[in-house]
């Protein structure tokens, strides 16, 4: 059975990124696609110990398994200082190589306070995932001025952005199934 892992690419509490992840989760589920949310804010503190590179703590297993058991990965990243959060790069580095992303479909959504909607971080992530031999879904969604579109309760009030997320998810599901015909 196929399953989309949706990564919330920050560990910032109450982030707009996570709010968008919850919208994507609802969209995928409305399409009949099972999901798992990978919330980097929930990473256990022991993951950040230097010894974790060689010996992954048991608390990291559910995060790793969410990626390894997925048929596709949808990364939602904010833009922090012109790039993506360090915790997202660390998470990628902690995952098993090469099987975590090798020939796995990956999709990107960028969230930003600024006017470009995290274009730079998404493009950088595409280079990293390309290096990891992932199958890159070409339709990206950039969400600029996100603070003016998301309520404190997490509701996305912009119908255009909601429509773009839905179109992206619909296309990504088809992409995943085309690449994984037995899923």
From TrEMBL:
Entry GO CC:
cytosol
Instruction: Kindly give the SUPFAM superfamilies that the UniProt entry links to this protein.
Output: Flavoproteins (SSF52218)
Classification via Pfam families: FMN_red
The highest taxon in the source lineage is: Bacteria
All copies of domain NADPH-dependent FMN reductase-like, residue ranges: 3-143
Which PANTHER family has this protein been placed in?
CHROMATE REDUCTASE, NAD(P)H-DEPENDENT FMN REDUCTASE LOT6
Please name the source species. Terrimicrobium sacchariphilum
Mention one GO molecular function: FMN binding
> What is the name of this protein?
NAD(P)H-dependent FMN reductase
Against InterPro entries, the record matches this protein to: Flavoprotein-like_sf, FMN_Rdtase-like_dom, NAD(P)H-dep_reductase
């Amino acid at each position: 059975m196929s399953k989309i892992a949706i990564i919330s690419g920050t560990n910032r509490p109450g982030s707009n990124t996570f709010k968008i992840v919850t919208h994507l989760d609802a969209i995928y589920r409305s399409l009949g696609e099972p999901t798992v949310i990978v919330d980097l804010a929930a990473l256990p503190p022991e993951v950040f110990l230097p010894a974790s590179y060689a010996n992954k703590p048991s608390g990291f297993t559910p995060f790793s398994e969410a990626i390894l058991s997925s048929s596709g990965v949808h990364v939602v990243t904010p833009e922090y200082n012109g790039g993506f959060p360090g915790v997202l790069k660390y998470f990628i580095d902690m995952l098993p190589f090469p099987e975590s992303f090798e020939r796995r479909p990956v999709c990107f959504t960028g969230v930003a306070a600024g006017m470009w909607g995290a274009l730079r971080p998404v493009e950088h992530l595409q280079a990293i995932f390309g290096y990891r031999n992932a199958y890159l879904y070409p339709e990206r969604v950039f969400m600029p001025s996100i603070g003016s579109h998301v309520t404190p309760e997490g509701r996305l009030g912009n119908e255009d952005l909601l429509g773009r997320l839905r179109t992206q998810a619909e296309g990504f599901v088809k992409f995943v199934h085309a690449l994984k015909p037995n899923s």
